[in-house]
Design goal:
Blueprint: E1 4-7, H1 15-23, E2 26-29, E3 36-37, E4 40-41, H2 45-52, E5 56-60, H3 67-76, E6 86-88, H4 89-100, E7 105-109, H5 112-120, E8 124-125, E9 132-135, H6 143-154, E10 158-161, E11 167-168, E12 176-177, H7 179-189, E13 196-197, H8 203-213, E14 220-224, H9 227-236, E15 240-244
Parallel strand pairs: 1-15, 2-5, 2-14, 5-6, 7-8, 7-9, 9-10, 10-13, 14-15
Antiparallel strand pairs: 3-4, 11-12
């Protein structure tokens, strides 16, 4: 059986693709461009979720929401997925940092839910002499705060990046700026700084999900529309995958 299949859409899969899906104990599926656009479920996503049941796990490089928030939001549109079956890069990044650096001082560039989670997990939020910098998507990032990131990284703070995506699909095909684009700005200022990437395609992200769900890579399948993150990441840990080539924007 092929380790990687290419399909046009999640809603027009070939019999071979369905054979792999039905055989998998765990089906990891990207959100943006696969099940939803701008967190609004696509037509047919609810039926797919019903068919897969507890085997469906959403894995997204979203770095602004917590899983419970996203589950509630999707549920309002009729797409019912439990919070514990949703893994988001921002949330996973905060948890990994809290485990690796318990009680550390952290400069968290991200949404309010991410800052609140960091505080709940014992991190001390500060812009002054932080031990780590966690870079996620922040709609309110100004140059003055960006300079604090440069200051911290210049002084040796450990650099964590929630996800490397430069953009994500938006309604009408207009790309939406993502964390990777912001990281490129810091990389231009500090070319010698290399972040620790948490979200897809990082093996750490996939292993976090697989361990949490108690499933081996051989028994799991990844479905995604971005080859560089979804497919390459899954392949790196030994998972089969289905690459959705068509870019759905609405």
């Amino acid at each position: 059986m092929q380790s990687q299949l290419e399909e046009d859409s999640l809603f027009s899969l070939s019999p071979q693709a369905w054979s792999q899906i039905d055989a998998a104990k765990l089906v990891l599926c990207d959100l943006d461009g696969c099940l939803a656009v701008e967190n609004v479920p696509l037509s047919g996503a609810d039926r797919l979720a019903e068919r897969l049941g507890d085997r469906l796990t959403v894995v997204s490089n979203n770095s602004t929401l917590r899983s419970v928030e996203l589950a509630d939001h999707l549920g309002r549109f009729g797409l019912m997925i439990r919070p514990d079956a949703i893994y988001l890069a921002g949330e996973v990044a905060i948890r990994i940092v809290a485990t690796a650096h318990p009680g550390c001082k952290a400069l968290v560039v991200g949404s309010r839910p991410m800052r609140e989670l960091a505080s709940e997990l014992g991190l001390t939020l500060t812009d002054k002499d932080p031990d780590v910098v966690i870079l996620g998507r922040d709609d309110n990032l100004f140059l003055s705060r960006a300079q604090k990131v440069v200051d911290a990284l210049s002084q040796g703070a450990v650099f964590y990046l929630t996800n490397p995506d430069p953009s994500r699909p938006g309604v009408g095909g207009i790309p939406q700026i993502e964390t990777g684009a912001v990281q490129s700005m810091f990389q231009a200022v500090l070319p010698g700084i290399t972040p620790i990437i948490i979200g897809k395609p990082s093996a750490a992200f996939f292993w976090h999900v697989l361990r949490d769900r108690a499933v081996s890579p051989a028994d799991a399948l990844m479905i995604g529309d971005t080859f560089e993150t979804d497919i390459q990441g899954a392949t790196a840990v030994g998972m089969k995958s289905i690459w959705l080539r068509a870019k759905i924007t609405a």
